[in-house]
Specification:
Strand order of the largest sheet: 7-3-2-8-9-10
Structural class: alpha/beta
Order of helices and strands: EHHEHHEHEHHHEHHEHEHEHEHEH
Number of strands: 10
Strand content: 5-15%
CATH class of one domain: Alpha Beta
Oligomer: single chain
Number of helices: 15
Distance between the termini: 64 Å
Length: 369
């Protein structure tokens, strides 16, 4: 007998405009020309080395990937990421589900971040109509269109709209492709159920995003640069909303994981930067590298020439070039360093605020043009 399930359709959603937010993007935004706080000399030297490796990678048409946690977006760094992809220094951006949400909320209402403790106590945390409705709808439509997670949301922000298909179109796709293209038929069936349940009118659904100029997702979509989203079921507030469907979300997330892995498959001679992501970044990188290494070995090759730069606020005195510390050393439990130390190539760890790191890196790269 199936386990009983919680009925989230009974949860009362509130309008996003009614929420008190901690941050306003126009006050929080970090522009690329902002002066960073001075970093210690050792950190400056590490960034000089990183710049050298980035320039070498781009001169050799190798990827420079940057994966980051949600705080990079919450800290207003969208315009800095935008400049780095516009200038062709970063070739792939990746974040978790929360990073996707904060970028969208900033773009949609210019504000983000609620008081979690108070809102949970009031039974209201995450129960916001527009965030749950529009992001889930973008993913359901994106799954049908064959888009990834970040691409679906970034496209919605950039175009300020979603295209809702006619029910007849979806019915035809289900009937015509159920044998020769079962995934497309399934995506059409899922979207059809959403269209009917929420009584969505066909055609262009206008969704104004007044602050989209700050969106790294939207700019990546505009430039054709991969911006991949890597969520975990139940981790994000969009799961509270009845619009949420695991099937459509999973299709988009799976597509993004494979897009991420494709970039990793070319990482030999490239650079991987991981900023403030304690779990997601090392986990998706190690699986992607393992698959990529498998194919490389089949070709008689091996991926060894990659450079990994990890950035976080936590202090780490361990020399990771010497391997892992013993289990009684606190550094052993810094998951990102422990995982990345196993990934071959060259690993460097830098303790820094993500704003100061990215601003300093951007300035150094400007001198290399």
């Amino acid at each position: 007998m199936p386990y009983p399930q919680f009925d989230r359709s009974a949860v009362k959603m509130q309008p996003l405009a009614a929420r008190e937010n901690k941050f306003e993007i126009q006050k929080k935004v970090v522009l690329p020309d902002r002066e960073p706080a001075p970093l210690p000399s050792a950190s400056q030297a590490a960034i000089v080395k990183l710049v050298e490796r980035i320039v070498q990678a781009r001169d050799s048409d190798r990827p420079v990937m940057c994966t980051f946690g949600a705080h990079a977006i919450k800290n207003g760094l969208g315009p800095v990421f935008i400049k780095l992809i516009e200038d062709d220094w970063f070739t792939h951006l990746a974040t978790n589900g929360a990073g996707i949400i904060h970028d969208w909320e900033f773009s949609y209402q210019g504000k983000s971040c609620e008081d979690v403790q108070r809102m949970v106590d009031q039974g209201q945390f995450g129960n916001w109509e527009e965030t749950g409705f529009y992001i889930n709808l973008a993913l359901n439509v994106g799954a049908y269109e064959g888009k990834g997670y970040g691409e679906s949301v970034g496209g919605m922000i950039h175009t300020q709209a979603l295209k809702i298909p006619e029910e007849e179109e979806l019915e035809e796709v289900v009937a015509r492709r159920v044998k020769d293209d079962a995934p497309q038929a399934a995506a059409a069936a899922d979207l059809l159920s959403v269209v009917r349940e929420f009584q969505l009118k066909p055609g262009r659904l206008e969704i104004p995003h007044e602050w989209r100029r700050y969106s790294a997702q939207a700019s990546a979509y505009r430039l054709g640069v991969p911006f991949t989203g890597h969520p975990m079921i139940g981790h994000d507030i969009i799961y509270n909303h009845p619009m949420n469907q695991g099937a459509g979300l999973g299709r988009c997330a799976e597509r993004d994981f494979l897009t991420f892995a494709e970039s990793v498959s070319r990482i030999d001679g490239g650079v991987y930067i991981s900023i403030g992501s304690a779990v997601m970044s090392p986990m998706i990188f190690e699986k992607s590298l393992s698959m990529s290494q498998n194919l490389a070995i089949q070709r008689g090759e091996h991926i060894d020439g990659h450079y990994i730069q990890v950035v976080d606020l936590a202090k780490s005195d361990w020399d990771w070039s010497q391997g892992e510390p013993p289990e009684d050393n606190p550094a052993y439990y810094l998951r990102y360093n422990k995982t990345f130390s196993r990934m071959g190539g060259t690993l460097n760890y830098l303790q820094a605020d993500n704003r100061d790191f990215l601003l300093t890196l951007t300035r150094q790269l400007e001198t290399m043009k």
